[in-house]
Design goal:
Layout: H1 3-12, E1 18-23, H2 37-48, E2 52-57, E3 60-62, H3 70-73, E4 81-84, E5 87-90, E6 93-95, H4 105-123, E7 128-132, H5 134-148, E8 152-156, H6 159-162, H7 171-180, E9 183-186, H8 189-196, E10 205-207, H9 222-229, E11 237-241, H10 250-263, E12 268-272, H11 278-287, E13 294-298, H12 305-311, E14 314-317, H13 326-333, E15 338-341, H14 346-349, E16 356-359, H15 363-375, H16 380-388, H17 392-407
Helix pairs in contact: 2-17, 4-5, 5-7, 9-12, 10-15, 13-16
């Protein structure tokens, strides 16, 4: 982006009371449009508020030419500058050897981003840095804040607090980040509690759960949704939207579904997602002789998920840990109840039996919960109404209010 372009963008936001530099590597880009959709939603809705302007710095790893792993090759095709929706995004590069430099990941991210961020600061009088994910992004952002003399607010999302502190070399940097950030946001009370276990005062942490995009997730007539997806119209239908990774525990779900099928032989279940466990899970489905009842349908565009939720009688999420799982809110927004394990922020979403069923973390409890959900008549309109009370517009307003309060000048103590 040229200096002329920067000046033009800056001129448009001169009347903004607050200019925010959002820093996160988990932002949608030209090669991964679905990456960090929940972060994009929050940032985009903050930017739409009158009196707010946002610029995004989303650093990208630069890998040696000899490093040929397919999952990392995609980074080579991300442009240095792009526009995602209405948001201007910069993608500075930083060196990285995956798996070897994790303890240095945050420092390398900072070193690759500091010059581009300083250049942006010359054109935008940023009020603060809005960082997402505590490590490595938040760590790098706090270093940027100290360099650019800007306050930093770090949002914790889940794995960054639920898992990373268990790594001996990473834990000190996570605690340093949390202590030196100006403010902290947790997406659930459960995540806030885990942050306090790292020695962070509770009053430094503001809980601001994610929202749901009700323009993208809305109910479609169940039979019409099944017709569009090519699904059977008469079978009791279960949907699970989650990546095929160990933490999502699809193996437990498949085993539970084999029990559900004994009571509901016409049952059909569709697992929407992709990941490294695909072959193993397919083998488990075949071993359970569920080939004609449980289907791995692969990843689907975010814009298509409302059809899958609408087509289902019930959706499932059986994770071993969560921050604030967006798929639960998205299912509810489509009028579909949820059966989910009682972990992380899930109980803070399923606060009523009118929204779904919480189950223990074992196959028997899960199977019983699914059977109960299939037998029950649910009020779809009530589900939708509950979801509409927590939109991204509401989230954005809470975020900006929190930022304002943090950035207000403090009165000088009286001598």
């Amino acid at each position: 982006m040229s200096d002329t372009d920067l000046a033009a963008i800056a001129a448009k936001s001169e009347t903004s009371f607050m200019k925010i530099l959002t820093f996160t590597s988990l932002f949608p880009n030209a090669t991964r449009r679905e990456l960090g959709v929940f972060i994009y939603q929050r940032v985009a809705h903050v930017a739409r508020l009158e009196g707010s302007a946002v610029q995004v710095v989303a650093p990208v790893p630069f890998l040696p030419g000899w490093f040929r792993a397919r999952r990392w090759q995609i980074y080579r095709h991300i442009p240095s500058e792009e526009q995602v929706g209405s948001i201007n995004v910069s993608h500075p590069r930083y060196p990285l050897l995956p798996g070897l430099l994790m303890p240095l990941h945050g420092l390398l991210m900072f070193l690759g981003s500091v010059i581009p961020a300083r250049r942006l600061q010359r054109h935008f009088d940023f009020a603060c840095i809005d960082a997402h994910y505590v490590y490595p992004d938040g760590f790098a952002a706090v270093l940027l804040g100290k360099t650019l003399k800007l306050p930093v607010i770090v949002s914790a999302r889940g794995t960054d607090i639920n898992v990373f502190p268990s790594f001996r070399l990473i834990r000190p940097m996570i605690r340093w980040t949390l202590r030196h950030a100006t403010g902290l946001i947790a997406v659930s009370n459960a995540l806030k509690e885990r942050m306090t276990l790292l020695g962070i005062p509770p009053d430094k942490i503001r809980v601001i759960p994610n929202g749901v995009d009700v323009k993208r997730f809305f109910p479609v007539d169940r039979q019409e949704a099944r017709r569009q997806l090519g699904l059977s119209r008469d079978n009791p239908t279960i949907v699970c939207v989650a990546s095929l990774t160990p933490v999502k525990r699809h193996d437990m779900l498949i085993q539970a579904l084999s029990e559900v099928a004994k009571k509901n032989p016409k049952m059909r279940a569709y697992i929407v997602g992709e990941g490294p466990l695909h072959s193993r899970l397919q083998a488990l489905i075949e071993a359970q002789r569920m080939n004609h009842q449980v289907f791995l349908v692969g990843g689907k565009p975010n814009a298509e998920l409302h059809l899958w939720f609408s087509a289902a009688d019930v959706s499932c999420l059986v994770s071993s840990r969560e921050g604030w799982p967006n798929v639960v809110m998205e299912s509810i927004a489509c009028g579909t109840p949820v059966v989910a394990t009682r972990v992380g922020g899930v109980p803070e979403i399923l606060v009523s039996s009118e929204l779904g069923i919480l189950v223990d973390e074992d196959g028997r409890s899960l199977a019983a919960g699914i059977c109960a959900a299939l037998q029950r008549t649910w009020d779809r309109q009530e589900l939708v109404r509950r979801a509409e009370s927590r939109t991204w517009e509401t989230v954005a307003a809470e975020v900006v209010e929190y930022f304002r309060n943090l950035l207000q000048p403090r009165p000088e103590p009286k001598s």
